[in-house]
């Protein structure tokens, strides 16, 4: 299987009106930085024609690939499939709703000279009040429980070296904790400010119930993993 420099992994659920525009923007950025790339869409059981649109795009552009779930499995499953089938040495994660800006990729990519993973921070959110306040509360609770200082764990725009997730097994809901899971594996993570755009097409899949309350349940699992992590390197005698 041919490898590439960068795999842009995009979970998509009922985003037929956005996927072509996103692919066009990503393509323009990749051509500027002159990297071998692929755009790997993971259709998460869409019912609005997204799967058919992605198939059409893949047939007309060799850089576009598409995986399709027969039914909806959620974002963690979509990302897990992306990690398995992506061919790049660097992974870029993005949402399909056009709120992430592909123009942020080059300055995030430059951070890999120093760091293993780069997470976006939507300093100026273009969301309604309920989303902003629920996200702020969720971030505060996660940081308290995991001893992190990440401003925006919910930002989908992330970039990291392939090996960062080689040993990570994603369970439902744990996509929200990818930076922490990467740190558990011993890699370093940095957060950078990124652009955030308002949604102009399609419907958001998140609300205070599935964004805030569900993540608290997952937080217990992540905290357990951190507490039970095996550390022995400093005690090995040779």
TrEMBL record:
It comes from the Bacteria. GO terms for cellular component: plasma membrane. It comes from Candidatus Auribacter fodinae. Residues 7-165 form the Glycosyltransferase 2-like domain. The keyword Hydrolase does not apply. This is Glycosyltransferase. GO terms for molecular function: undecaprenyl-phosphate 4-deoxy-4-formamido-L-arabinose transferase activity. GO terms for biological process: lipopolysaccharide biosynthetic process. It holds the Pfam family Glycos_transf_2. Keywords: Cell membrane, Glycosyltransferase, Lipopolysaccharide biosynthesis, Membrane, Transferase, Transmembrane, Transmembrane helix. Gene3D superfamilies: Spore Coat Polysaccharide Biosynthesis Protein SpsA, Chain A. The keyword Disulfide bond does not apply.
């Amino acid at each position: 299987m041919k490898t590439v420099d960068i795999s842009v992994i995009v979970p998509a659920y009922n985003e037929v009106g956005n996927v072509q525009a996103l692919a066009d923007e990503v393509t323009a950025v990749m051509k500027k930085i002159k990297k071998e790339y692929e755009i790997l869409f993971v259709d998460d059981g869409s019912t609005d024609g997204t799967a058919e649109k992605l198939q059409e795009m893949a047939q007309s552009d060799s850089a576009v690939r598409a995986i399709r779930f027969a039914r909806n499995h959620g974002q963690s499953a979509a990302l897990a499939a992306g990690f398995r089938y992506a061919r790049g040495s660097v992974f870029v994660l993005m949402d399909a709703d056009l709120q992430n800006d592909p123009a942020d990729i080059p300055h995030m990519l430059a951070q890999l000279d120093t760091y293993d993973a780069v997470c976006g921070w939507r300093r100026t959110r273009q969301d309604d009040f309920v989303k902003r306040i629920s996200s702020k509360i969720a971030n505060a609770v996660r940081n308290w429980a995991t001893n992190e200082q990440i401003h925006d764990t919910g930002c989908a725009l992330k970039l990291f070296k392939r090996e960062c997730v080689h040993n990570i097994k994603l369970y439902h809901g744990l996509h929200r904790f990818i930076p922490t899971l990467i740190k558990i594996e011993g890699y370093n993570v940095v957060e950078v400010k990124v652009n955030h755009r308002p949604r102009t097409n399609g419907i958001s899949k998140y609300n205070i119930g599935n964004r805030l309350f569900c993540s608290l349940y997952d937080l217990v699992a992540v905290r357990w993993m951190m507490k039970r992590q095996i550390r022995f390197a400093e005690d090995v005698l040779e």
